[in-house]
Amino acid sequence: MSIVGTPVYMAPEILKKNNNEDGYTNKCDIYSFGIMLIEMITLESPYKECKNVLEIMTLKEKIKLPESIFKINDKNVFKFICGCLIPIPE
User: Fold this and answer.
1) What sign results for the dihedral spanned by CA atoms 41, 45, 49, 54?
2) How many domains does the structure of the chain reveal?
3) Which of 23, 51, 52, 68 has its CA 20 to 30 A from that of 44?
């Protein structure tokens, strides 16, 4: 019932998961993939603007994208990554 992993790469659903509910779905893997793409393309750690894990969690809860995503110049790549990170309303 504990969270294991690196918060930068975790989907917001995982970070705010309660012990009573399973926050994990396939969407969580897609989110992590998007975050990894940002790092691979920009060669920067996403959310490096944050001072600690709590700041990362707060930004993710507010669906704030990491600053490094805005360094991606290719419009199609940017849109693809945003599609991985921004939740689609159900």
Assistant:
1) positive
2) 1
3) 23
